[in-house]
From TrEMBL:
GO terms for molecular function: monooxygenase activity. Pfam families: ABM (PF03992). InterPro entries: ABM_dom, ABM_predict, Dimeric_a/b-barrel. Residues 19-84 form the ABM domain. It comes from the Bacteria. PANTHER family: SLR1162 PROTEIN. The lineage of its organism: Bacteria, Bacillati, Cyanobacteriota, Cyanophyceae, Synechococcales. The chain crosses the membrane at residues 128-149, 155-174. This is Antibiotic biosynthesis monooxygenase. Keywords: Membrane, Monooxygenase, Oxidoreductase, Transmembrane, Transmembrane helix. SUPFAM superfamilies: Dimeric alpha+beta barrel.
Length: 191
């Protein structure tokens, strides 16, 4: 099986969990969550986790985002006894079953913090917002970073620039751009 075929059948994936915590149980939930994150970090293929704590009283849910390099490795984590044990402990501090969404493509950049289960916007809208963001980032990098690394060989400069663009896009810019353009990205949905 070639690498592109393998990536199509077992792509990188992001799991987006939205969970409401019982009032007064936040500290106990945080303790179990810390153990859950520690256990996930030990799993093969785990790429990171982000926790978005409630900041809006109208949406008092925790949003927890796990990233894995392959769906197959995510499945191994989901079926692991330690995860099951920790989820059972966490359930005593949560309300309802929560929301769970698995994202495997560009749509992972286009999730709203308090509404992860919404279907992704149309691809042309994702492309336009991504293009605007990349355009701004490349121009900022050309002004700020390129003068600092200008003496490096071209392939190393490109390596650094692309690494910075992808990291900023993934961890900083796209969540903010999604919020900024949410009215256009999700026009028919009540947010």
């Amino acid at each position: 099986m070639s690498a592109p075929d393998h990536l199509d059948s077992d792509p990188p994936t992001t799991v987006d969990v939205l969970q409401r915590i019982k009032p007064g149980c936040e500290a106990a939930f945080e303790a179990v969550l810390a153990e859950l994150i520690q256990a996930a970090m030990a799993c093969e293929g785990h790429l990171g986790v982000n926790v978005f704590r409630p900041s809006d009283p109208a949406h008092p849910e925790y949003r927890i985002v796990f990233k894995f390099d392959r769906i197959s490795r995510l499945k191994q984590w989901e079926e692991s006894p330690i995860r099951q044990r920790l989820l059972n402990r966490a359930r005593q501090f949560t309300e309802g079953t929560g929301q769970y969404a698995m994202l495997t493509g560009l749509e992972t950049w286009f999730t709203l913090p308090h509404r992860p289960g919404l279907p992704a916007p149309p691809r042309y809208k994702m492309m336009v917002v991504s293009w605007i963001t990349i355009y701004v980032l490349i121009n900022l990098i050309n002004v700020i970073l390129v003068p600092l690394i200008g003496t490096l060989p071209a392939f190393l400069r490109t390596l650094v620039v692309t690494l910075v663009v992808v990291a900023v896009m993934t961890y900083v810019a796209m969540s903010r751009m999604t919020k900024l353009f949410k009215g256009w990205l999700y026009p028919a949905r009540r947010l």
